[in-house]
Amino acid sequence: MRETALAALQAGIGHVVSTLLIAVLFWAAGAAIAARFSGWVETATSAALVGFGLWVAVGAWRELAPENHQDHGHDHTTEKGSRMALLLILGSSPMIEGIPAFFAAGRYGAWLLVVMALVFAAATTGTYVILSVYSAQGLGQIRFGRFERYGEICSGLIIVAVGIAFWIWPVV
Questions:
Q1: What pLDDT is attached to residue 76?
Q2: What is the per-residue pLDDT for 118?
Q3: Could you tell me if 4 and 136 are in contact, meaning their C-beta atoms sit under 8 angstroms apart?
Q4: DSSP character at residue 1
Q5: Which of 6, 41, 119, 136 could serve as a FRET partner for 143 with CA atoms 20 to 30 Å apart?
Q6: Which bin fits 65, alpha (ψ -120 to 50), beta or left (φ > 0)?
Q7: Predicted local confidence at residue 97, as pLDDT
């Protein structure tokens, strides 16, 4: 559970930082430029989801290959690669839809923006950690049979499908 909480905390911090960095960049560049490149950001996000999903699915598929099964237990590199993929997916996906709230609050002063950023950071990382830890505890008590063997491949393919869906039907 400690590793789960730490990974969720890292993903939450990455999510907060990427969102706030994009907000600062858009603010600095101006609304006209932000509007001009918003389609690019959506496309890049979709492409990243497809790429990360394929990375997870292909890595899991390769792990199932007979030559990778040795008597020493499980492969720690694949485990670390899966965690890294998850952290990159969650941590590098900014909350674009929340950025206008920061723009609107900007006219009330820098202190309100700082308070909003701190509340956003605490709420996001707290939610990531709490939901991840309790979900892992609950899922640890359930056995999924044959699905456990192919679950990571399915997860990767679902991420790919979400990326493709957002690519085809961008969020307006």
A1: 46
A2: 93
A3: yes
A4: -
A5: 6
A6: beta
A7: 65
Reading the block at residue 117, the tokens are 């950023």
Q: What's the one-letter identity of residue 143? A: R
Q: Copy the structure tokens of residue 106.
A: 């900007």
Residue 53 burial by Cβ neighbours in a 10 Å radius (0-12, 13-18, 19+): buried
Residue 69: φ, ψ to 5° = -90, 110
Q: How many CB atoms lie within 10 A of CB 74?
A: 11
CA–CA separation, 163 and 172 (whole Å)? 15
H-assigned helices in the chain = 2-29, 31-64, 76-91, 99-105, 110-139, 147-168
Question: How far apart are alpha carbons 137 and 131 in whole angstroms?
Answer: 10
Amino acid identity at 22 = I
- pLDDT by residue (tens digit) across 32-55? 665 666 667 667 767 777 887 787
| Angle between helix 31-64 and helix 147-168 axes, rounded to 10 deg | 160
3-state DSSP assignment of residue 151: helix
Q: What is the pLDDT of residue 130?
A: 93
Query: For residue 164, how far is the Cα from the chain centroid?
Result: 16
User: Phi and psi of 70, rounded to 5°?
Assistant: -120, 170
